[in-house]
Amino acid sequence: MLTRHVAGGTALSVLLATASLLGVAAEPAAADSAATLPITSYSDMVVDGAHRRVFISTTDNKVVVADYNGKTVAQITSEPGAAGLVLSADSSTVYVALPKADAISAIDTATLRETARYPLGVAPRHLAMTRHTIWFGYAADGSADLGSLDLDPETDPTTPPTTPPPTTPPTTPPTDTPTPTPTDPESTPTPTPTDTTAPSPSPSDTPSDTPTDTPTDSPSDPPVTTSPTPDATTPAPPAPFAADTPTRTTNGAVVTLGQGGPHTWSTAPMLASSPGNPDVVAAGTPVQSPMELQVYNVSSGHAEPQAYRWNANNAGNMQDIALSADGKQVLVASGAPYFQQAYRTSDLADDGRYTTDAYPNAVAVAPDGTIAAGIDGAYEPDVYIFRPRSDHRVRTYDFGVVGNPGTASALVAGGLAWAPDSSRLFAVTADVYGQHPTLRVLTDPTKSVTAVTVSAPSTAKRATKITVSGKLTATTAFPAGAKVTVTRTDLTSPKGTSLGAKSVAANGTFSFTDTPTTGGGVTYTATYAGDATHTAGSGKRVVQVSRLATAASVKTNRATYAYGSTATVTGHLGKTGKSRVLSIWAQPAGGQKKLVKSAKVNAAGDLKVTYRLSRNTTFWASFAGDAVSAPKSVTRSVGTQVSVSLAVSGNYRKGKVGSTSYYWFHKKKSALFTTHMTYANGRSQRLDLQVYYKGRWYSSGSEYFRLAITGTSRVGLAGPGESGIRARVRAVYVKGSSGDRLNTTTSTGWKYLYYTN
């Protein structure tokens, strides 16, 4: 089962049961590709733009490598508990946190092989990188803290900061910080207000930045404290660097532990850094409620506390953290409130928001500053795109369903990562059961989706001017001077005729006139080519342009035909425009309609064909229409008899009675009647028997008998037992009553019988 990316791969409860159904309208899912991942859990993701590869870590003890289309190209195994990932500035190496090995490994991005492993003595969970130093949140011996791995210690200061410790506490220190005592350092802590350096919660305090739109009554909301806790936003007190003795590894890197500062961590902190400000690392406690944030200045090569905040915005259950491209904002996704929060890195004061929906679980920043914000939602968009410092959505993505029908596909926690050129956004999703892990590749994520509508009359007269109008719509304004190109497609120009570029007004509308000279369906297509901030888009409208009525007819040389005979069919076409092509079709009863012939009619307007018949048949004479004349189709149906014969046997002679030839039978002798008829599935023949009495023939009964697959039926008739009896019999196919309607009713002639002593 796929577990959600929280602290150290622990599972995030699926909070979808009461998810809001009032999400914003979203564009259809825009993933250019989506591929199933060979993982059962998700930890982290990083994108290597130089080699166009995506690295995904999993607690399955491996790192999966995919291409830019989402296809898995390699699996790097023997990476125990693979968790956080960072990429070196030159894209040559991916570093992997290995909490099950108490180490960080280095993977060559070209060869996809592990080239080094750095023992730490603690279990790293989350990574960030500034210059040549990897910062890691770790857990060890029931506690957690911040450490660093300096890959190039020769360029660092050789001594730690020497700022003396303060002789008195800060003027506005926090008075109550959670002191959790979980046995599992990655579990959700329960604050215990005993630490004199933490803020003291007071029932009478009301957080000044509690959002008015934060739901508080949903049974599925992430856990938050039931009593309001003061929101402490204070610069962290200056403190001397007091780290463990650096340990130089066999690979020449220096490991330094215990850099978390005066505020202790209950679990390995999540970390974030940005090339835009390599002197800053932000940290936050995953899953914990209330949320706890710290910012460190790392310009000296060691972590020096810069700012601290507890219970900001009443937030809890933190799932992801990032820094803005310029490093001036800390961006946080937490289960509540229902927006991605933004704080100044200088002092962690509120600095805006990016409004999404319940429950925020991911945030990622592109190099150009564009922000991708994700939620764990089933009935609303999954990913929201924002410009820096703007709460206006550029676009949204809704991933729909995956796997079993009706199973929503949701973004996993921390499951977003940008390509370095901002051209792609990668997202990892799973269904609500954590199954069907999928890597989705979203193209042009920084561009607002362009919708083009085209309006025109549904019908119009040929050679009459009409007005065609339309509108471009998107979540962001179009640039001045935008144009759409218009194409007209009709019968005379099936590949389209350009009508040129049409200017788009400031409100996105455009309009033009045209005079269609070709009748039939005329399609007007307006296309916007796209720009730096908008995708391409197109729309179309079909106008049915009138045409002159067409005269046509079809006739046959007979109405009913014997089985196997040939019909002569003549189609006639009246006056038309340029086209003089007529098509004659035939459809036997129970069969497919087939083209017999399509050709120009003769000077008289006729097209003649012949057709061999075995069943009732309908003929069509069809004209497809042209620029002037409307399509026309006419039909003619003919009947076709079955092939049927009747043989009589058992008689002792043949002779005439009067002028009629009879089969003569002894009065006690049975007669045998053998019928042969064209076979069809389920078909029966009917035998009619009549007796002659006092100068007239009277019916003695009729009965149906099923044909064998050979089309044969044999029926016996017992002798009457007295002489002088005259009778007659015939075999009949009756349309409908004989089991089908494939042919017209057909009968044999009468066979006459005479009984003697």
Structural shape: elongated
Query: How much of the sequence is in beta strands?
Result: over 45%
**What's the story with the biggest beta sheet?**
7 strands, mixed
Which quaternary structure do these chains form?
Answer: single chain
Gyration radius (Cα, Å) is 43 Å
Number of helical segments with 4 or more residues = 0
Could you walk me through the main structural features you see in this protein, from its secondary elements to its overall organization?
Helices cover 0% and strands 46% of the residues. The protein has no helices and 56 strands. Strands 48, 49, 51, 52, 54, 55 and 56 form a seven-stranded mixed β-sheet that branches. Strands 10-11-12-15-14 form a five-stranded antiparallel β-sheet, with no helix packed on it. The protein starts with 30 loop residues before the first strand and ends with a strand. The model is unreliable at 1-31, 158-230 and 236-245 (pLDDT under 50).
Looking at this protein, list some descriptive labels.
7-stranded mixed beta sheet, 0% helix, 757 residues, single chain, 46% strand, disordered N terminus, mainly beta, elongated
Short description:
The chain has 757 residues and is mainly beta. Helices cover 0% and strands 46% of the residues.
